[in-house]
C-alpha cells in the first residue's frame, strides 16, 4: 500500500519558511459555518462533520476511515452511512478519520480569516494575505470530497468577499485542475476562474480541465483552463501563467485569490512540469505586480525536502525579503 501524500509533516515543513524570514504567523479565529453553507450543501457538510461517528457506530467493521468503494452521487437517497459515503465522496482520496472534521473546519476558518482581514481593512495594510490551508480545497465540489479536498476554501472566501468586492478573480497554479472551483462558479460572471494545470487526459482529476470548458449561461467566458502538456519546462509554465494573468487583467478584479500548489516543483511526485525553487519567487512577483488585494492559499505540494525552500522563495517575491 502506498503512503499518502497529504500528511501533517507538510505543514511542519511549510511553517519553517516564515520563521526563517522572521514573519509572524497568526492563528485563525472562528468565523463560523454560515460562509461554508453559502457554498456547500447542508447534507454534505453534515456528512463531513458526523460521518466518522456514524461509520464507527456500525456493528460491521468497515475500517478505521470513512472511505467508499461505491460511487453513486445521483439517484442516491443517502440512507445509511454507506450510502452517504457513496453520495458525498467523489473518489478514494478523501477519507474521513476521527479528527478530520477539526482539520477541515479550521482550514476553512483560516482562509476566512484572510477574507475578514480584507473586508475590515480600510488602510490597505492587509492587502496581501497568505494562508496555510490544510487540507486543501480546490477539488472539493459543492457536495463531494475528492483529491484530498473537503471544503472548497477558495470558493468559500470568494463568496464571502462578494459582500464588499464586486468582482473576484481566482488564479489556480496547482499541478491539478480545481474542478470544484470550476463547478461552483461555472454559471457566474462575477467570479473569474483561471487554472494553469497539467493536461488532465489520464491525469487527476481526469474528466475536467479542458480548454473548451469556458462556463455556461451568464458565466460563459469566465472559466478559463490552460492545460500544460506533460513535461512542460519552466518557461512553458510561465507562458501559461502569463495567459492567465492577461485574462485577469482584462477582467480587472477587485481582489485576487491565488491557489498556490508547490506540486509544480520539478522534483514533486505529482509534477508534470519543471518549476524551479527560484521560479516560485518569480510567480509571487507576478501576483504582486497585478496591484490588487491578494489572498494566497497554500494547497498542493508533496516533496517535503523542498517545501520550506520553495515557500521561502515565494515569500521573498511576495514581501521583497531577500
TrEMBL record:
SUPFAM superfamilies registered for this protein in UniProt: Arginase/deacetylase
A UniProt-annotated Pfam family: Hist_deacetyl
Family: Belongs to the histone deacetylase family.
Organism ancestry: Bacteria, Pseudomonadati, Pseudomonadota, Gammaproteobacteria, Moraxellales
Known cofactor(s): Zn(2+)
Transmembrane segments: none
Organism: Psychrobacter coccoides
Location of the Histone deacetylase domain: 9-317
Name under which the protein is recorded: Histone deacetylase family protein
Domain of life: Bacteria
Keywords in alphabetical order: Hydrolase, Metal-binding, Zinc
